[in-house]
Specification:
By secondary structure, the protein is an alpha/beta fold. It contains 15 helices and five strands.
């Protein structure tokens, strides 16, 4: 049986099946070729194609840069992997990716990355040594939000170091995220200038021409489009220029043909999968909201005494903060008198 050319989920790895985004790809390449490379933040909603864009750029950047290609070493790194849950793990993953693109005999390029431990200083020194040798590491970092889950591992110092390397034209980053980086800086109280990257590209829906091109994806085993003209029209109508919806529609229309089922069946499967995706997304939003309400917010409230002079750990902060959060509610429903609330706050803040 022939392989389905449409991808209902995940990243497009076969460059023959990638469609559109020419302006975005050329924008990345143009900022990479300058005397002062400009790091870029790729911003877009879930399923809009950020991962596929970064990976396709990895596979095709030489076709866009053309001149002085020996100057660059481009890698793709998915930050959601277990290797990137610590700062050292991140540096080692970057080193592994870069060394995979360097020939074994090029010891002057390989040796800087073999220092142990590969900590912040060693990473910075390796990048600077590459600059002296005329090499620019270009890191395509996917799923940036993963780093934000470990604020104790990736602090302002980590981000400041990356920013310093970028400012000295020794490193270029292409960072994919759902929100603009400075929004995350405000949400997570980061003060590093890293979060003000030089350029932002907002990934939107495909153009009409790109959507038509996607509906005409070729079969992997035979020449010609995988879908009939009528099926291609269905893809365009159901998908409404959104990359994920277009791929999903094409996927089920192709499956329907292979299984001898009507288009009505494909449309039903398409709608069911969209509903599941929306439900999963809402579930994740609720989990994030609950974490903020019952952990992040209480911890921050609980740190008020610490700023004034107290010394408490995060568990104590959480307990105190949760009490501060719940006490006004208890007062409003008449469970706790106002004078007792004031006595508690005054005691915790050290007010006499």
């Amino acid at each position: 049986m022939a392989d389905n050319p449409f991808l209902a989920a995940g990243m497009i790895e076969d460059p023959r099946l990638f469609v559109g985004r020419k302006d975005e790809l050329n924008a990345i390449a143009s900022r990479m070729k300058g005397d002062q490379p400009t790091s870029i933040n790729i911003v877009g909603d879930k399923h809009i194609g950020k991962s596929s864009l970064l990976y396709y750029f990895l596979r095709t950047w030489e076709q866009r840069v053309l001149q002085n290609t020996n100057r660059y070493v481009v890698i793709y790194l998915a930050l959601r992997g277990v290797d990137c849950q610590t700062e050292t793990g991140f540096y080692e993953a970057v080193a592994e990716g870069l060394l995979s693109q360097v020939q074994g005999w090029q010891l002057q390029l390989r040796n800087p990355w073999k220092r142990k431990p590969l900590n912040r200083q060693a990473f910075s020194d390796a990048v600077k040594e590459w600059k002296q040798q005329g090499k620019l590491p270009v890191l395509c970092l996917d799923d940036f939000e993963s780093l934000l889950r470990y604020p104790d591992k990736f602090d302002n110092g980590f981000y400041d170091n990356l920013r310093s390397l970028m400012d000295s034209n020794a490193l270029m980053l292409v960072v994919a995220s759902r929100k603009q980086l400075d929004v995350y800086a405000n949400e997570h109280h980061f003060g590093s200038s890293f979060f003000n990257l030089g350029h932002t590209i907002y990934l939107q829906e495909l153009t009409t021409d790109e959507a038509i091109e996607l509906s005409r994806l070729p079969s992997r085993s035979i020449n010609g489009a995988a879908l009939s003209v009528d099926e291609q029209n269905c893809v365009q109508q159901w998908g409404d220029r959104h990359p994920y919806k277009l791929q999903l529609a094409g996927y089920y229309l192709w499956e329907a043909r292979q299984q001898g089922k009507p288009i009505k069946w494909a449309k039903q499967q398409f709608k069911q999968q969209l509903t599941k995706a929306k439900s999963a997304s809402k579930g994740q939003q609720w989990q994030l909201w609950l974490r903020w309400l019952f952990w992040d917010l209480p911890v921050r409230l609980g740190k008020i005494p610490k700023f004034i002079g107290g010394t408490v750990d995060d568990i104590s902060n959480w307990i105190i903060g949760l009490v501060i959060l719940l006490l006004p509610v208890l007062v409003l429903v008449g469970v706790v008198p106002w004078n007792e609330l004031w006595d508690f706050v005054r005691d915790k803040l050290g007010i006499k």
